[in-house]
Request: fold
Amino acid sequence: MCFVFMCEVDMRNRYASFEAIFAHQNWHNRYINRLSRMRESNSSSDLTQCEG
Reply:
């Protein structure tokens, strides 16, 4: 859904918004990577607690 929204913004004003979208995508990827690592660490700790 987020990707579709960025495509719509890119189509409306492609050259002016390309750099902004690219920068936002980089930030979004870093945020998702950090969030996924946090979720993995949390899930692993939850699994150990459940096993214990």
User: Anything to note?
Assistant: The radius of gyration is 17 Å.
